[in-house]
Amino acid sequence: MSFNWVSSEPNGRSGGLLFGFNSDTVDIISHNCGKFLISSIISHKEKNFSWKFLNVYGAAQEVNKRDFLCELASFCHNSSVPLLIGGDFNIIRRESDKNKPGGTNKWSFLFNAIIEQHGLIELDLVGRQYTWSNNRLDPTFEKLDRFLVSPEWDLAYRNVIPLMS
């Protein structure tokens, strides 16, 4: 098995992005980096099927969340191929994404609007209900990491199950 890697530089206090792919199975046709994501066109060799992967690290700081959501919406809007979007969005979608009350806000509303506008489907994660903790004595847990797909991507890869560890 031969792996290749695509990465982006750190952005302030936020780390950069990195993802690996099995070059025996897929080719990276092109990629470019935004401030909060890496966009890659991927071609699955066996299926002769191309799609766009957006590897995201959403803004953790309130002041940058609007810029993140604008960039995400722009990359989704400009896609002419099926989409797989995954990573740490740093935004919860619904109250059940947090173990304590008071989770959703205007960013949740805008994030959900982008998902709905592009007809994206959230894949169920297996392994953990929450993906982040503040590690306090009375901890707050939130689901910030997720995978979203377009209906065309979902149809081509019906048996994909994202595992969280």
Overall residue-averaged pLDDT value: 93
Q: What value does the Rg take, in angstroms?
A: 16 Å
Helix share, percent: 10-25%
Q: For this structure, what is the CATH class?
A: Alpha Beta
- Strand order within the widest sheet? 3-4-5-6-10-7
Distance from N terminus to C terminus (CA atoms, Å) equals 23 Å
Find the structural class using helix and strand composition: alpha+beta
In total, the number of domains comes to: 1
CATH second-level architecture: 4-Layer Sandwich
Strand % is 25-35%
How do the helices and strands follow one another from N- to C-terminus? EEEEEHEHEEEEH
Q: Strand tally, please?
A: 10
Oligomer: single chain
The coarse silhouette is: globular
